[in-house]
What we know:
- The structure holds two protein chains of two kinds.
- By secondary structure, chain A is of the alpha/beta class.
- Chain A has helices spanning 15-18, 22-27, 43-56, 68-79, 98-109, 113-124, 140-149, 178-187, 202-205, 207-219; strands at 6-9, 32-34, 62-66, 86-90, 165-170, 191-196, 229-230.
- In chain A, strand 5, helix 8 (178-187) and strand 6 form a beta-alpha-beta unit.
- The two termini of chain A are 30 Å apart.
- Chain B is α/β, with parallel strands linked by helices.
- Chain B folds into two domains: 8-143 and 343-494, FAD/NAD(P)-binding domain, CATH 3.50.50; 152-208 and 251-337, FAD/NAD(P)-binding domain.
- Chain B is built from 14 helices and 20 strands.
- The complex binds flavin-adenine dinucleotide.
Amino acid sequence: MTAPAIVLVPGPGGASEDFGFLAPMLSRHHDVVVAELGSASDADELLDAVGRAVASAPGLPAVVGYAIGGVAAVGYAAEHPEDVSALVAIASWWLPSPKLAAHVRLWRSLPDREQRAEAMRLARYSAAGWDSARQPSVTEAGLRLMELSARIGTVDSAPRVTVPSLVIGCRDDELVGARESRLLFGAIPDARYAELASGHAVLDERPAEVLQLIEAFLGRPERHPAGTLISAEAL
Amino acid sequence: MSGEDGQRVDVLIVGAGFAGLGMAIRLRRRGTDSFVVLERADAVGGTWRDNRYPGVACDVPAHLYSYSFRPNPEWSRMFAPGDEIRRYLEDAARDEGIEPHLRLGTDVLDVRWDDTGLRWTVTTSRGVWSAGVVVVACGRLSEPRIPEVPGLEGFPGEMFHSARWDDRVELDGKRVAVVGSGASAIQLVPELADRVGSLLVLQRSAPYVIPRSDRAYSAVERTLFARDPDELARLRSRLFWKAEEAFAQRSGSPEITAAARAHALAHLARQVPEPELRALLTPDYEIGCKRVLISNDYYPALRRPNVTLEASGLAAIEGSTLITRNGARHDADVVVFATGFHSAEQPYAPLVRGVGGRSLAEHWADGMIAYASTVVHGFPNLFVIDGPNGGLGHNSAIYMIETQIDYILGALRHRAAAAEGPLQVTAAAEAGYAEMLARLSAGSVWLSDGCASWYRDPRNGRLTLLWPDFAFAFRERNGEFDPGVFEPVAPSVAELS
Ligand SMILES: Cc1cc2nc3c(=O)[nH]c(=O)nc-3n(C[C@H](O)[C@H](O)[C@H](O)COP(=O)(O)OP(=O)(O)OC[C@H]3O[C@@H](n4cnc5c(N)ncnc54)[C@H](O)[C@@H]3O)c2cc1C
C-alpha cells in the first residue's frame, strides 16, 4: 500500500465507541493501528500509549486523534517528529475550556450511571445531530480521561509540530468550544482547518464527512497550503 | 428528414433526462450557445417522464435528489412524487433557456466518428448533424426489460411494463399480476392492493426493505427554505453525508453490515407476524447486494386477503394463466411487468462507432468500461454520463451526474484553450481504471458469494454499473479533467483497422 499507515487515538469513549465507522473505512486503503489509552493518568502516559501504537505501525504513520486522543497526538508529533508523517486532530483543543471542566465536574457528581450517561449525551451532541445520539458507555477509566482532558492542552506542544497537520473543529461543540479548536489550528505552523456542522460527537454526527476530510488530506497534504480554512464541499 | 440536415454544432447531447439537461444548463450558464439536446421522446424528464406508475417517487430525499445549482424550496415531501420531479425538470429546461436547443421527437440512430473530418456525424430520425463533441446521456435505466417467457404473445388480457404505464387499462376489481419485487414493484403494489380485485406478486428474489421516513414539508418549512437558502444547503449537506454512511454497509465492515441486516429483518419481523409469509420475504443473500428498498406499506399490503405472494419467477403463460417456476398457476386479467431495465448492455452501445468504425458494443463486449467512468479509448471527444461504473446503491445519482458534468466542462475548457485536436483517452489509462475498480470492489458485497444483481455484467461477473466506493471518492478521483491521460488521435489507427 502506498497510502500511509494510520494510528487512531480515541477519546475517553475508547476505540469501539469512537472509531466504529472510521477504523474499518480507513482500513480499506490504509493499515490501521488503534492506540489504547487505557487508564492513562497524565500527559506522559498518553504519549506512551500513542508511542506503542506508532511503533507497531508499518512505515511512518499518520496519527489521527479524537478529543483527548487528538491532544495526545499533537503532543506525540511535537516530541517525535521523525516517527510520524502527518497529524489529524479532531475536536481537540488548545486550552481546555472552562465549560469542559464544569461538565466533567457535573458528570463526576452524578451518582447514578444512567443520569451520568444522559448528561454526557446532552453535552456531546448538537441539537441538529440529536437523531444520531447514542447513550455513551461510562467507565471509570473513561471518566478519569475526561478529568485529565480538563487539565491538559496543546499550548506547549502545538507550536513544535512540524508535520503537515489537519485540525477539524466542530461548530456546535459545547464541550471543547470551536474557538479552542481554531486556536489549535492557529498554533500549529503547517496546519489547515475544517469546521463541521456538528457537536462534539462528530464521529457519530458526521463520520463520513470526517472520513472524506482525512482521506483528502492524507492523499495530498499539500493540496491546501498551511493556514488554509478548508470550506465545506459544494454538494 | 427535416431542414436540419447537415447542421453543424459544437456540442451534441443525446438524451434530456437529469444528465442531458444538467449538461445543457451548465453549458448555457457558461454562455455557450453552440449545443443541441436530442431527445427521442416528446418531452424532457427521462426516467421521470417514463415512470408514471401509481406510487412512483424518488427513494433518495428530493432535496438531495435534485441539481445543486437549482435548489428547490418547494419539494412537497421528503421523497417527492414522480410527477413533481418531472415538473422540476420541465421548469429547469424552460427557465434556463434550454428549450431553443432542444429537439424533441428526435431518435438518435447512428453516431459515427469521421476519421478524416475528426468530427462526429450523428444520424437521427429527423436529419443528420455534425458535432465536434458528443455527450451520451441516454440513461442507464431507460430500456424496459420484459422477460422472454413462452406464451407471452398469446396472453389475452392487458400487459405493460411499469415504465410504460397504461392509464386506459381498467384495474379496479380486476385480477392483476405484478411480475417483480424490486424498486418499482414495492412502490406500486401498495397502491394497487386496495383497488384491484385480486393481486398476485411474483417475486424471484426477496428484497431487503427498511423503514421509509417520508413526511410532507409544511408551508412554514418551505417558506423558510425559500427565505434562507443556507437552511436548504445545510439540509442537503446533512442528507448527503447521512446517505454516505450507508456505503459502509456494502464494504469493509462486517459489524456495520450485520447491523444494517438486523435493522431490515427487524422491520420485516415487526410488519409480518405470519411465519410462512415472513420466510418467503426473507432474503437469501447479503444486504446491499441489490438496492435496499424503503417502504412502510409494502409488507402490510402483502398481508391483505386479496394479495398473494408467489416466491417464484414467471416461467410461462398459457392463455390467461401465469405459470411460475415452482409450478403454481394463477389466472390474471392484467399483467404489469415491474422487471427493471436492460442495463448491462446499453441500447446506445451498438449505435456509437468510434475510430476505425469500431462500435461501443464491440469495445464493451467484455463488459462496459470508461476511464473516469466518462471517456472511452477509441471514442475521441465523446463523453458518457451515467454510464459504466457511474451508478450508486447508497446515494444520489445527481451527485454523480454533476461530477461527470464538471469533468466534461473541464475537458471542453482544455480543448478550447489547447487547440490540439480531438481528445482521446489512452488505452493504458482505461485499463488502469479497470484495475482500480477491480481493487475497490474486491471484498464488497457485490462480489460476495451468492450475490447476483443487475449491477454485475452477466458475461464476465464484473461490476460494470456501480461505483464501488463512497460518492465523495468518485468526485475526488473523477471530478477534475486530467489532460495527462489523453493522446492525439493518430490517423494511422484509422487506417490500420
Ligand atoms: C422508477 C425509478 C426511480 C428512481 N429513483 C431514483 C432515486 O430515488 N435516486 C437515484 O439516485 N436514482 C433513481 N433512479 C435512477 C435514475 O434513472 C437516475 O437517477 C436518473 O434519473 C438518470 O438520469 P439520466 O438523464 O442519466 O437518464 P434518463 O432519465 O434515463 O434519461 C435518458 C434520456 O435519453 C433518451 N434517449 C435514450 N436513447 C436515446 C436515443 N437513441 N436518441 C434520443 N434520445 C435517447 C431517453 O428517452 C431519456 O429521455 C430511479 C430510476 C427509476 C427507473
